[in-house]
Amino acid sequence: MSRAAVLMLENGRVFRGHSVGPTTESIGEVVFNTGLSGYQEVLSDPSYAGQIIVMTAPQIGNTGINAEDQEGQGLHCAGLVMREASPISSNWRSEISLQDYLEEHQRPGIDGIDTRALTRALRDEGVMRGAISTDVDDLEALLARIKASPSMEGLDLASQVSCESIYTWQDPTPDAFAQPEQPSEEFEVVAYDFGVKRNLLRQLRHAGCRVTVVPGNTPAKEVLARKPHGIFLSNGPGDPAAVGPAIEAVRELVASGTPIFGVCLGHQILALAMGAKTYKLPFGHHGGNHPVMDL
User: Fold this and answer.
1) Residue 226 half-sphere exposure, CB side, CA atoms within 13 Å?
2) Alpha helix locations (H) across 207-264?
3) How many Å apart are CA 201 and CA 92, to the nearest integer?
4) Which member of 67, 85, 135, 244 has the greatest number of CB atoms within 10 A?
5) pTM of the predicted protein model
6) Torsion of CA 115, 119, 120, 125, to 10 degrees
7) pLDDT truncated to tens, each residue of the chain (295 aa)?
8) What whole-number distance in Å separates Cα of residue 95 and Cα of residue 262?
9) How far apart are CA 164 and CA 220, in angstroms?
């Protein structure tokens, strides 16, 4: 029999369900993801550090977990919320089940939740802190722990998920994502790692780039000494305004005239370096199904 568990929000609302994976308690910012597939890529994306992920697709885990689909080293998210955790994993690439994956990385999950009601609550009131816990008898104490946890605003999480030393990305593209013959490495690109997803590095390599990955706090002069053709600013978690050393470095890199490009947190850091300001939206749209209008 599965153990009873709760997801509690900082506004005091409680969603009751069943524990999936380890019974450890976890507190984080509760966000929803509208992707219909790719739950492993979402869970292993370092951009979700410190966040409890609500998957809006009704069943999660049915294709299992495999090593090739990892977007980062380990799991950085705080937990996983599901309508239903699939009791089986059936796919030719599956190596372990989602439940075993959560156990291995000691990240709690909960299912049996009305994720539509939860998503509406987060949409209407904005993302908020919350907790997954199997301590279902003392909810007042749990709420106190949630309110004592740090807010995402002003939190530098990028430094926690960045690499510790410089390396060159040379991992081959998995067979499942085989692309045309690998082009020659025509361009030298330095990638700042604020929580970079592996697929971004794969795509740069397939575009003909030799990719050198550097920690997020690397000074500009060290990057410029490599004379790169371009500088890539990666995705990552947390508040971009809290990543002070990176903002200063990018300001120097912009002044050098070297082409700079990025995604997600990297774009926000670039904007801050150019004098813009950032602010936190009530909720972000996490997922692969963003509407696009062709203008």
Assistant:
1) 22
2) 220-224, 244-256
3) 25
4) 85
5) 0.92
6) 140
7) 679 999 999 999 999 999 999 999 999 999 999 999 999 999 999 999 999 999 999 999 999 999 999 999 989 999 999 999 999 999 999 999 999 999 999 999 999 999 999 999 999 999 999 999 999 999 999 999 999 999 988 899 999 999 999 999 987 666 655 655 666 778 999 999 999 999 999 999 988 899 999 999 999 999 999 999 999 999 999 999 999 999 999 999 999 999 999 999 999 999 999 999 999 888 877 888 877 889 9
8) 33
9) 17
Which position has the token pair 């696009």? 292
**How far is it, in rounded angstroms, from Cα 14 to Cα 135?**
12
State the pairing for strand pair 14-20/4-9. antiparallel
Q: Where are the beta strands (DSSP E) in the chain?
A: 4-9, 14-20, 26-33, 51-55, 59-60, 79-81, 84-85, 109-111, 128-133, 167-168, 187-193, 209-215, 230-233, 260-262
From CA 13, how far away is CA 2, in angstroms rounded? 22
Cβ contact 11:31 at 8 Å: no
Structure tokens at 50: 């410190």
Q: Which of these, 233, 235, 227, 230, lies nearest to 262 by C-alpha position?
A: 233
Whole-angstrom Cα distance, residue 30 to residue 116?
A: 14
Strand, helix or coil at 140?
A: helix
Number of H helices, E strands in the chain: 9, 14
